[in-house]
Amino acid sequence: xxxxxxxxxxxxxxxxxxxxxxxxxxxxxxxxxxxxxxxxxxxxxxxxxxxxxxxxxxxxxxxxxxxxxxxxxxxxxxxxxxxxxxxxxxxxxxxxxxxxxxxxxxxxxxxxxxxxxxxxxxxxxxxxxxxxxxxxxxxxxxxxxxxxxxxxxxxxxxxxxxxxxxxxxxxxxxxxxxxxxxxxxxxxxxxxxxxxxxxxxxxxxxxxxxxxxxxxxxxxxxxxxxxxxxxxxxxxxxxxxxxxxxxxxxxxxxxxxxxxxxxxxxxxxxxxxxxxxxxxxxxxxxxxxxxxxx
Length: 294
What we know:
The chain is an alpha/beta fold and about 290 residues long. Helix content is about 55%, strand content about 10%.
């Protein structure tokens, strides 16, 4: 039995419906029945999280809340399946992935992705579905409201699909720009870097993928032989022994002054000094702009 509980902020993040609106809906309608803690804070079950995903999707695509309120769960699901707009269909798939993740139903989660891959191809599945799904659930993981087992199960399936996407892209000409991708010692959260690999290959850029847990000495050796155009690293949540300042200092001392681009959760709040050839991208939009500029 799933005993997970969620805050109103979690519901807002996953559904795209403002907390203020959720509170108004609770007062006027019956589809949400949160429990309250002793200090009067609302908590929601996974059933209610699934309901708000259904309600927000139908409401966004033309159904009035008063009408939705009278529907059974089965009727809601039926109406969702009948939505024909492409945006609605994409959101339905993303919502289904969230629901299957919450239920730890990984067979159904993977099946949903495979159906979309069959219909739209692996590239579109990555850019239209996986990317949006990760954006929607990303903040939830950072607030620790999803159990790590949800994260591990989901990430391993998504990792396989992105690698499949990378393999299916056409081979790159050897005279194109070259980017080396790596993650520092103690960092194993690979999805962000794999996604960058996929996007770069899609843009026709050569990629050497050094992967996770890479010592700076090994990176230095690679760079001295291969002389890439850019070095790129994505850092999310490395081990406790990782020291960001020390890492940046070592990167700044590398030979050749090759442009080094860094992104990821750990760097968003960094305000310290960096070498002139190190460029920190503090948002996803900045990272995507950089990739497009290569």
